[in-house]
Design a protein that fits this description.
A hairpin with a 6-residue loop joins strand 13 (468-473) and strand 14. The chain is 47% helix and 17% strand. By secondary structure, the protein is α+β, with helices and mostly antiparallel strands. The strands form three sheets. Strands 8, 9, 10, 11, 12, 13 and 14 form a seven-stranded mixed beta sheet that branches. It has a five-stranded antiparallel beta sheet with strand order 4-3-7-6-5. The chain has a two-stranded antiparallel ribbon with strand order 1-2. It has helices at residues 3-11, 23-28, 52-101, 199-234, 236-249, 265-309, 314-341, 351-365, 385-402, 454-464; strands spanning 102-104, 110-112, 128-133, 140-141, 162-169, 172-181, 190-197, 349-350, 370-374, 380-381, 406-414, 417-424, 468-473, 480-489.
Length: 493
């Protein structure tokens, strides 16, 4: 880029002009056009998956039911066993009294020194029975057994008390406690048995179960109601957040405020950041519209004056100024497009394919220029492909147009960024002019066509994506070196 040409490097970096020699238009013409401003905005309706409150209450109800059912079953077993043990203890007390009062008569049979205290032993089929028996001997029953006898069963290996249920009397279920005893003066091992109908025991257990079920149902209902109240209270911040958003939409407030829980505060911060981001975009859009109107005012004035004066070069003036207006429009459209896509997770472009596309387009326009590209081929940047093409097209076209015939492009990864160096063998740009050359409309070389928007476009788009562009002197080629730094993106899986 010779010194005058290098000034032109800023002028030649235009994008998407209708001129056949506009390389950026050649590179980006295939891009999908943006939505037309007149198109009405479309909003997808919110997809709901049911009430969050109902979901939380149902989950709480399910857990409460499951836990209370498990706890109720365990408590039922504990209470039933406790009642049964108490029942057995009473029978064992009667059994012990029978054994203590038993003795052997002269003929070797069992007799009792005193009658049983409970009168039910004297009433037939009273539900309370005792019996003394031994293998090979006639059982000695209580009067309450009347014509029935308790089964002897298998002999026990120990002399402890054994308790069990029995259905030997048909409809009358029995609870039996028994013990094998060898009385003094006898070599026979006698079995003492006391039995009682389970009706009273079963009725007591059933009453406990009814009380337990009622209590646990009331407890479950109370816990579910409390869970519902807790859910309503816990979701109050979301309802307040909704009301704050409604106030924002109605213009009563500009931000979501108020005291909110720690769990909701990050959401509010992100929401306020989104609102601020949208406000900045709207402000930038208004500023771009004003800048565009101001930029188009002068060319339109020139055209109107030429048309009013019926100048001989009216057609040439109209074409020239129309190109200027088109480039101004392209400049502001590029900024608006980049601002709209800034921060998108889908903003991702591969550097190498973009470089190859630009190299082919520039090579067709400047066949005398040799363009060399070097560096890794797998680097990606957080930039839309169309914007990357536009920046590279401006830089490489400028280097080819104002260099001496050699352009060297180097790509490298550097600390979370991708650096793209574009060098030429021209005259370069003086250090004093390397700052103001980025201003819109500044041209150091007025001998070649241009608008002075190329470098401004590259700088604006790069900064929108969080990148930078700087001008230096090329040590290898001696001309200008443009260093474009863009945020790196990891390769998609």
């Amino acid at each position: 880029m010779s010194s005058p040409p290098s000034a032109g490097s800023a002028t030649a970096w235009t994008s998407r002009t209708p001129d056949p020699d506009d390389v950026t238009a050649s590179v980006t013409d295939s891009a999908v056009p943006d939505a037309r401003p007149g198109d009405p905005p479309t909003f997808a309706p919110a997809r709901t998956t049911g009430s969050l409150s109902r979901r939380m209450i149902l989950i709480a109800a399910a857990w409460i039911t499951l836990l209370l059912a498990g706890g109720g079953f365990a408590l039922d077993r504990v209470l039933a066993n406790a009642v049964t043990r108490n029942f057995d203890d009473q029978l064992e007390y009667v059994l012990t009294a029978q054994i203590v009062s038993a003795e052997i008569d002269p003929i070797g049979e069992v007799q009792f020194s005193r009658e049983a205290a409970d009168q039910r032993f004297l009433e037939p089929y009273s539900g309370l029975y005792w019996q003394v028996s031994a293998p090979g001997r006639e059982p000695f029953p209580s009067r309450s057994l009347w014509d029935r006898r308790l089964a002897y069963g298998a002999p026990h290996q120990d002399r402890g008390v054994h308790a069990y249920d029995s259905n030997q009397f048909g409809q009358e279920k029995l609870r039996i406690v028994e013990r094998d005893v060898q009385l003094p003066g006898s070599k026979v091992r006698w079995r003492f048995q006391v039995a009682q109908s389970r009706d009273g025991l079963d009725a007591q257990i059933a009453a406990l179960r009814r009380t337990l079920v009622r209590s646990f149902l009331l407890l479950a209902l109370g816990l579910i109601v409390l869970a519902g109240l807790q859910t309503v209270y816990g979701l109050l911040p979301l309802r307040r957040l909704r009301m704050e958003i409604v106030r924002m939409r109605s213009g009563q407030s500009s931000r979501v405020g108020g005291a909110l829980p720690d769990e909701v505060a990050p959401l509010v911060e992100e929401l306020n950041a989104l609102v601020e981001h949208n406000e900045k975009q709207a402000e930038e859009a208004r500023r771009h519209a004003g800048n565009l109107a101001h930029a188009l005012k002068t060319p339109l004035t020139v055209i109107m004056n030429a048309a009013t004066a019926q100048a001989d070069d009216l057609a040439e003036t109209v074409i020239r100024e129309a190109r200027t207006m088109r480039r101004q429009v392209d400049h502001h459209l590029a900024r608006a497009r980049a601002v709209g896509r800034r921060g998108s997770a889908h903003s991702r472009a591969e550097v190498w394919p973009s470089l190859q596309s630009v190299e082919r387009a520039v090579g067709r326009l400047y066949r005398h220029v040799r363009i060399d590209v070097a560096g890794p081929k797998d680097l990606q940047v957080h930039v839309e492909r169309q914007d990357l093409d536009e920046m590279l097209g401006n830089l490489i076209e400028n280097a080819a147009k104002y260099g001496g015939g050699s352009v060297f492009v180097t790509v490298a990864a550097e600390a979370g960024f991708v650096e793209i160096l574009v060098e030429d063998d021209g005259m370069g740009i003086p250090p004093d002019d390397r700052v103001r050359i980025f201003d819109r409309g500044v041209r150091l070389d007025t001998g070649k066509p241009g608008t002075g928007l190329g470098l401004a476009i590259v700088r604006d788009v790069a900064e929108i994506y969080g990148g930078t562009v700087t001008l230096e002197e090329s040590e290898d080629l001696g001309g200008l070196l443009v260093r474009l730094r863009l945020p790196a993106a990891t390769a998609a899986a």
